[in-house]
Amino acid sequence: MKRCYYEVLGIDRSSGADEIKRCYRRLAMQYHPDRNPGNREAEEKFREAAEAYEVLGDTEKREIYDRFGHEGLAGAGYRGFSGFEDIFSSFGDVFEDLFGFRAGRTRTAATQPGADLRYDLHLPFLDAALGAAVDIDIEKMESCRTCRGNGAAPGTNPSLCSACRGRGKVSQSSGFFTISTTCPRCAGRGQVITDPCPRCSGTGRSRTQKSVHLKIPPGVDTGSRLRLRGEGEEGPFGGPSGDLYVFITVEKHEFFERDEDDVRCRVQLSFLDAALGASIEVPTLEGKEKLKIPRGTQSGKVFRLKGKGIERLRGFGRGDLLIEMAVSVPTNLTKRQEELLREFARLSKE
Asked: According to the model, what pLDDT value does residue 141 have?
């Protein structure tokens, strides 16, 4: 079970961005893998602190976490880090502040991350208001199935690079960290492909279609963005995957209209119900509901149903449903109806 992110960083819920970063830097320095070689507990604490900082240091993720906890983040597509290289890539500025240079384990060409992907999702109004689960199809680069990602033709293997002896880099030490430069012969792979795979031409990747299951949290609106970590393109030759960013456009509804966290609609009301009062059925986001109309209700009168609007994405509770009455006047009267109305008009004058 995951620990509370505030507990991991040793801060309280009112802490600001500067304190969050300061506490993370202290933990990153203490538990950095290169300072604790072979220490599994330190590696886990390093990863845990990075995950906490990734969430609490991001305003949008922090609001979701404060409201819904770890489950809310999972529903919004946050999946944590895939490895140390992912952490170093995301927080390179923090390590530069600490050590004066990028103190991650230098990423070579062999472990370059895959590209991030964008998907534009058009979402029905009710799905955006109430939340939904949808499957989307994306096209992306993944490890080649023919060569299993190594780039060599079936039955062959990449050869060890003679220039770097398979290391892929030339290293220089600085304290307990290592600064490396990429091997010019193998471009950092540590291997050379002499007989490339016919399907991927030695790149180790091929284009494929994939279906991704996406949970839409209630309350999203046009312009909302969801990030699915690791659902982008796979990196070449075993590099970490990029991320998938889903940009949402909410479709208009034929009846409801959004006003921040409130929902507005207009209901036709007969002039008899408006004059005499009635109990009518009105539509809500979840279905129909009874609404009591008092005598003498005028056209334009707005009734408010508390908590029947849209769930607040960055807060607590829900908005309201605002129902405007539009009193309709009959246009095709029978002779008897007209007589009665004229009698009503005469009595009204008296």
From this structure: 80
